[in-house]
Amino acid sequence: MLSLVAGAAAFMAVRPAPQPQSCLPGLSVLPPELYGVCVSGTRVRSATCGAVRSALVMCEGGDLESKLANMQRENQARGAIFLGIVLLAIAWSFSVPPDIRRSVICSSQAEIDAGLGCVTASAVGQRIADHYQTCGASGVPCVQWDFSIDPGKKAATSFVLEQLRSLDAADVLADVLGE
Fold first, then answer.
1. In the chain, what are the domain boundaries?
2. What is the pLDDT, as a whole number, of residue 169?
3. 114-118 average pLDDT score
4. Residue 118 contacts residue 104 (beta carbons within 8 Å)
């Protein structure tokens, strides 16, 4: 037993002191330009940069919980700004006249040529601009709060719901299972 302790003590005395190691050994394989971009915080669409930033947060030392709490506060502030912009856009969309709001924007020239009742995005933009240029003077208010539902879409939805309600659940299940 004494020899075991003596051997361990000798091993510890001979063992070299640990060299300071980079806590990010994987960074040595990154090209220098990517390392600089990742570490600087510049947004790059790369999973490698995300891993580098995560590793840097872990290696910087300090209290990880406080860093995560700070990151959470910053992200919540950014999210609150974005949410505010989205809510303003939604509220504004209900303030334009329903005939403009209910416009269907075509995704291709073929839809326009087929006469499906859709319009281009630039045409909708022009209608909005015309509305704000002529509102007020012609007796039409600039803001028209209207939360009504398009009667055509309401009728189509009611028809589909009635069809679904009339189905027998056992028949639907048999059709789905192919029996």
1. 23-61, 72-148
2. 77
3. 78
4. yes
